Amino acid sequence: MPWPCFFCLGAKRAVSPFEQTPVLVKRVHTPPVIDGKLTEEHWFASSPAKDFWLNFPHDTARSDVKTEIYFLFDNKTLYVGAICHSVGKKYVIPSLKRHYCAGGNDNITFLFDPFRDRTNAFVFGMNPYGVMREALVANGGREFDDFNESWDNRWTGESFIGDGFWSSELAIPFSALRFHAGEQEWFFNSYRFDTQTNTRSSWNRIPQNQVIMNLAYMNNMVWEEIPPKTGANIAVIPFVSGGLNKNFEEKGPLETTSGIGGDAKIAVTPSLNLDLTANPDFSQVEVDQQVLNLDRFEIFFPERRQFFLENADLFGAFGNPRINPFFSRRIGIGTDPEGNNIQLPIGYGARLSGKLDNNWRLGLLNMQTRQDTENLVPNQNFTVAALQRKLFSRSNLGVIFVNKEAFTRRGDIPVESRFNRVLGVDYNLASSDNRWNGKFFFHQNFASDKKFDSSEKFAHGARLELRERRFSISYDHQWVKEGYEPAVGYAPRTDYFQIKPGFSWFVYPKNKKVINQYSLGASSTVLWKPGFGNTDRETRFSFEADLANSGRLFAYLAQNYIYLFDAFDPTGTDARPLEANTGYQFWNVEGLFMSDNRKKFSYFLNPYAGQYFNGWRYSLWAGLTYRYQPYGSIEMNINFGYIDLPSPYAQAALLLVGPRIDVTFSKRVFLTTFIQYNNQVDNVNINARLQWRFAPVSDFFLVFTDNYNANTFGVKNRAVVAKLTYWLNM
Questions:
Q1: CATH number listed for the domain at residues 6-223
Q2: What is the mean pLDDT of residues 319-329?
Q3: Contact criterion met (CB below 8 Å) for 493 and 478
Q4: Domains of the chain: which residue ranges?
Q5: Alpha carbon distance 713, 665 (integer Å)
Q6: Cα–Cα dist 521/248, whole Å
Q7: Under DSSP, is residue 605 helix (H, G, I), strand (E, B) or coil?
Q8: Residues 677, 658: contact at Cβ < 8 Å?
């Protein structure tokens, strides 16, 4: 096979023998009643999307469990009707909560790519009980991280269970979608999970070595007439909130809080949206679960706030997960004089994002935070501009500019760094069939402080992967200079050059009674510090298997070397740290087993054992989930680690344990409760969030938070917050 031109991969796309006949979207003058039953005759006026291909347990045959999907539209709405045949009525429905996860339960998912770029898609899903979900897919859906389930929008749907089938009807307003006016063809695909036959299937075939939401494998949906322009499309989402909180450690008084503000969504064009926010309050956002941090660097938590989610990849997908010039969670977070993170009030924000046409995407963001005089944090403005140009079938070239600037008046808070800016360019490679994918980027940092000159303020990276049915081979390198410090980005480590080649071999056994598919892999990560030499390396040999019952198994053996330039306490408990300027070499093994999550009881086990710097480490992360269908689940998680270092260093038993309780009283009322005991940070946390969706995308939230000392169980602080939001279409 000749070596390809990486910048023109995917310019031509061969027609696959597995591709389906395009489906027709029929115009209707009388809209169907959304009751899940598909009783109206006009549903069947055209041929459906049918004859699904299997994806699991194999991908070479049609599914025996039939699925049919029909499409209608009128001047305001796209209607989708699906009939999912089944072999019984023992459906697995973990809960009635919106935004369910597709794995381990019965459901069908629909993916729409109005711009036919095979890069971004809108996702809507239903299960047999009429529980809805929506999501956004970015970056071609190449990895599970490209699937964002936190996105929310206004649409309706219902399901019906009949004899030998279940069916769903969806009414998706054109205002919930972004599309280019005048286009008569979109890309579409659908996938279905059927627990009774333990199969996964998709309308357009998706090879088993690709994730099932991969957008490289879409097909045409053809509109009988060009979809109508949506006209004025404005939504206003006001909120009011109030709360009580008390700091018991500082013996502070009971304090009251209140807020009023809101968001607005304005469709500048059918494909370009303006989001506005004033005095936003994100108290309703589900909290991050705690983790035991045994790493030397900052832990990454994903963005969950609705304002930042639509077209989030246009802003946040530059670089890679460890070298990111823009990380939206930096907005609204500051640092007090002791170096602790504090929450800062946001005054306003504006965000314009979407498609200019089928080839160009634009993103503009501006947000202002208020100063915190007590903690000496000034007013700060955040500006981001991104422009992306599609190249060939699925690749693109993007540029980004990020600016954080502090504003003060004379005599106000002193400013150590008045501005911090990043200018970057990324080329994202994705061939038409996803055999080749990769990324090449260069980012230059500019800052008002003169600590480093410009030659020490850049980051560069490249990644390339070839994925065939039987194997994958990859190469990755990163080069981050010492002065690269993006204030609104995520770059936990600087001053290094790293390479990481990897190889995996995929095996598909003929006898699939136990293992459906497995892979053997090897990778080597080597990191150098300029002027010093090798500082870190890891050689890893891995085994990964998809089990016939839908469980998973993973294990690896690794040899590590780490050179510490700074003193480091591996326990994270302020014990005596290991000495700086010392190198450590050690071996370890780690495994992961995930059971069949279709069962009422499911569990996972993640053991670790081996050497750890100059001592030993043994740990077990485990979880047990009981599903009380369909009203919720109880999940108990335990993360125990024992670190045994030689005297005079620490021996530490670290424990993070607690249940997560999800109760869904109905499809409108949900209660989620976390209880977490963490002796590493000396904290016991209780967080309970009650949500009542009283109207489409309109909610009442009641959130209770309680923190205790892990040793004495004395109260640290306590708070209760109520918030009411309402989505109003203008």
A1: 2.60.40.1190
A2: 94
A3: no
A4: 6-223, 271-281+313-494
A5: 31
A6: 52
A7: strand
A8: yes
